Amino acid sequence: MKPSTLVARLVVSSMLVAVIVLLGMSASAWATPVQVPSGHSTVPTKTPKPTATPKATATPKPIEPQLNISSVTCSDGKIEIHFVVVHVPKDVKSYGKVKYVLNGTTRYASFTKLSGDTAHYVERISPISSNTYKITSATVTITTKTKTYVISLHNPGKYTVGCKRR
Fold first, then answer.
1. How far apart are the first and last CA of the chain?
2. DSSP assignment letter at 9
3. Tell me: the pLDDT tens digits for 23-71?
4. Residue 114 CA to its chain's centroid (Å)
C-alpha cells in the first residue's frame, strides 16, 4: 500500500473517531427511554387538520305580509270576492278589513278566518249585469302587539264572472 493511501485512511479514521467522541459527549445525540404510563400508547396519532371558521351569515329578513286577490266567483247567486293575506305575523291583535275599489266604488271585505299564516277576507255582493269585476286597489291594516302593517294589494285585476241571482 502506498504511504499516501495509508495517510488518507488514517486521517479519515481519525475524523470518524473524533465525530463519534463528540457525539458521545452530547446528550441530545443519544435516545433515552421514555417511561410510558400504563394504558397509553407511544404510537403517534394523526393530527386532524384544522377546519375553517364558518363565516357569519346575515340574519334572514322576515317575510313581509302580502295582500292578494284569491278569487272572484259566483256562489249561491252572489259574487264572492275573496282576499288573502299571506305570511301573517304572530301575535295579531287586529286583522282589520280589506278596503278595496271595485269598478270605481270603495267596498270592504271582512276577516273570516286564519288558516296557518294566511288571513282570509270575503265580501259577497249581488251580481252586476256586465259580469265584469275590476279590482284596481286594496289595502288592509293588521296590528300586532309591536307593529302595525298597512298592506297594499299585490295583484289587482279584472274578472269576468257570470252569475245568476237566486
1. 136
2. H
3. 666 665 555 555 656 666 666 667 777 777 778 777 777 789 999 999 9
4. 25
